[in-house]
Amino acid sequence: MTWSAAWVRVRALSRPRWWPWLVWCAVLGPGLLVAAALLSDLLRDTRWLGANPVKEGELRLGTLTIQYLAAALAITPLRRWLGWNWLQRDRRTFGLAAFCYGLAHFLWYALLDLQLDLAQLGTDLSKRTYIVVGFAALLVMLPLALTSTRAAIARLKARWVKLHRLTYVVPVLGVTHWWMSVKADVGQPALYSVLFAVLLGWRWWHARRDNSLHATTTPARAGSH
Predict the structure, then answer these.
(1) How many domains does one find in the chain?
(2) In the Cβ-directed half-sphere of 192, how many Cα atoms lie within 13 Å?
(3) More confident residue, 147 or 223
(4) Euclidean distance between the first and final Cα of the chain, in Å?
(5) What pTM was computed for the model?
(6) What letter would DSSP give residue 89?
(7) Can you tell me the distance from the alpha carbon of 77 to that of 115, in angstroms, rounded to the nearest whole number?
(8) Is position 135 within any domain?
(9) Would residue 189 count as lying in a domain?
(10) Is residue 63 situated within a structural domain?
(11) Which residue range forms the structural domain that includes residue 140?
C-alpha cells in the first residue's frame, strides 16, 4: 500500500464505537486519581502527592485545566488535517472539562489551601496579581460553559459565535497565571505558551486565508445607477 493510499484510508475512518468511552476516561480519570491520592495521603499518611498534598493537588488541577484547554483548541486543526469531522463533538467535552478542572482548582485553593478564610480570599483576589488573573480566566470560562448547550447555540445564534471568541482569551490568562505563580520551574508554562501560540496562530492564519479566499471568489457588487 502506498503512502497516499494509506493516508486516504486514515482520512476515511469513521468514529469508532469505543471513542466516547476513551474521551470520558481521559476527561474523568485524572481528576479521580488526584482526589483518590489526596484521600490516601490525608487518611492513610501516604505520599502520592508528595510532602504537601494540598499544594501539589492544586497544581495538578491547574495543569489539567491548561491541558484540556489545549485539547479543545487542537480539535479544529486536527479535524481539518485528518478529515475527521466527527472530532468536532469532542471540542465541547474538552472545553467543559477545562472549566470543571479550573473550578476545582479554585475551590481546592479556597477550601483546602485557605481553609475557607474569606478575609484572606478577599485579600488575595484584590492584591495578588496572579490570583486575580487566574480568577479572571475562570470568570471568562463561566459564560462559555453555561452557553455550550445546543439550546443556547440555537437561542443566541450569531451572538453565540461572538461570545465564544472569548475562548481565545482564556489560554492567555491561564498561562499568564501559571507563569506568575511559579518561582523557578518555568519549563511547563513555557512549553504550553509555545503550544498555545501555535494553536492560536494557526487559527489567525486560517481565518485570514478563508477571508482572502472569500473575497476573491465573491463577485463584485454591481455599482448603483
Answers:
(1) 1
(2) 24
(3) 147
(4) 61
(5) 0.89
(6) H
(7) 42
(8) yes
(9) yes
(10) yes
(11) 18-215
